[in-house]
Structures are given as structure tokens and as C-alpha cells.
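User: Predict the complex with iron/sulfur cluster.
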Amino acid sequence: MYEKYRKKSPWILHYNAGSCNGCDIEILAALAPKYDLERFGVINTGNPKQSDIFLITGPVTLRSRERIVELYTQIPEPKVVVAVGSCSCTGGVFRDMYNVEDGVDRYIPVDVYIPGCAVSPELIIDGVVKGLDILEQKTKEMEKPFKLFQEATTKDGITSRRETPLRVGEDNEKN
Ligand code: SF4
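Assistant: Here is the predicted structure with iron/sulfur cluster placed in the model:
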């Protein structure tokens, strides 16, 4: 049920890694009343620990690279990274500048690339919707290991996922 409602109300974290602000304004336009991304339950939160989708604009600069990795590691799994604009995809017009490293995927894995300079709000909305599908797939992947176990059984008051429940002092190798 939790997964169902996460897809219906994903929270995003927006980070400007070094952009010219062009793509950031388009993200704000997508959230503003004209396009009103919030009507789909999408909320721009400033807290990585409550976010599902990481929206990054701009190329990775020397000053922002550590922040990007920090924020990425603070977002709980499953999470989706969306590179917004040509700069975050490849470095764009800032590529090969003295203070610019590269696109975002040099440091963290990117799930959705939205090229363009600047990207339109429609494309950003499409990218977020694509990210939601990936988020759903990742959630299912995370659930898989639990399905490898047998259904829990109860025998003599002992609940176990093995056919024969282990008892205290019993040799594990026998089972
Ligand atoms: S893609 Fe264009 S608008 Fe977006 S941050 Fe880069 S230069 Fe600015």
C-alpha cells in the first residue's frame, strides 16, 4: 500500500549543481499554477530523507560534486535521479571549463536524462512521469529477495520459513 501511494504522491528534491538558472526556472514553472505539477501530488521538498526523485540541473562543478554525492546517499532507496537539461546530462555549454567536471552521471547513477537548453516544463513533467515508472520497477526489485523465502510456518509454537524449524542447540548444517 505504501508503494501505491508513493507513486501517487512522489516527493522531489531539486538541486542546482551549477546551472545558469534557466532549467531551474523551468522546474519552478512546472510546479507553478499554469502546469501545476503539484496537482498530481508531486511536492518539492527540501529534505533528501523524505524524497523519492532527485532532480538535478546544471553541470557538476568542483564545488558541487561532494554535495551531489552527499544528497544522493541521504535519499532512501528506492530512488530515481533525473538529469534536467543538457548541462546535467553532459556538461553542456559549460563542458571543459576550468571549474566544471562533467555531467551528473560521472558521480551518481542517472535514471532519466532530459536534454535541452533550457528544457520545457512539459519535458520535465514527462521526465518525472518516466521516473515514476522506474521508481515502481525499483520498488518491485527490492521486494524480490523476500519472495525467495518460503511462506512462514508455525510448528510447536515456533515460527520459521524453513520446512523443519530449528531448535536451540540444533546443528545448522543438518538443515
Ligand atoms: S541546459 Fe541551458 S538553460 Fe539549462 S542550465 Fe544548462 S545552459 Fe542553463
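Residues 19-20, 22-23, 57-58, 85-87, 92-93, 117-118 surround iron/sulfur cluster (CB under 6 Å).
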